[in-house]
Amino acid sequence: MHITSSAISLNVADPTASAEFLGRHYGFNEDMAAEGFVSLSRPDAGFNVIFLKTGLPTFKPASAAGAADGLLVVFVVDDIDAEYERLQAEGVEITTEIETEEWGERYFQVTDPNGVVLQLVQWMTTGGTDAAAD
């Protein structure tokens, strides 16, 4: 198998509101849009984010057509503290304040207008090992 691209597709009540939030605060660009559908990308994200209006009759399988409860959309960044300050300055409400887990994950969370939780993460060096090393 050879994967040529990746995407995450989320069912939300208002795809335009979520798309505008990612565009304004995270620098995503709209690639395609139609009634009840918006596809966004940015060159360094590694995947597209797609918002689908909840209840679209074309969504398959129908059993998975509800909102994605418990889902986090996570972006790893180079300077978590700068991103935290930037989003606060832009007036974005912080859902989970910035904190560092014992395993080296420094993160915070915001929630978009449809309730999608967006988490920014920076892996900190722990115990002499860089947790972000591939």
Give your account of this protein's structure.
Residues 1-123 form the VOC domain. It holds the Pfam family Glyoxalase. A hairpin with a 6-residue loop joins β3 (37-41) and β4. By secondary structure, this protein is α+β, with helices and mostly antiparallel strands. It has a single domain (7-123), classed as Roll (2,3-Dihydroxybiphenyl 1,2-Dioxygenase, domain 1). The model is unreliable at 127-134 (pLDDT under 50). It is built from two helices and ten strands; from the N terminus they run βαββββαβββββ. The radius of gyration is 16 Å and the shape is globular. Helices cover 16% and strands 40% of the residues. The longest helix has 12 residues, at 15-26. It has helices spanning 15-26, 80-89; strands at 7-12, 29-34, 37-41, 48-53, 72-76, 94-100, 105-111, 117-123, 125-126, 129-130. A four-stranded mixed β-sheet has the order 1-4-3-2, covered by helices on one side. Strands 5-8-7-6 form a four-stranded mixed β-sheet, covered by helices on one side.
What does this entry show, briefly?
This protein has 134 residues and is of the alpha+beta class. It has one domain (7-123): 2,3-Dihydroxybiphenyl 1,2-Dioxygenase, domain 1 (Roll), CATH 3.10.180. It is built from 2 helices and 10 strands; from the N terminus they run βαββββαβββββ.
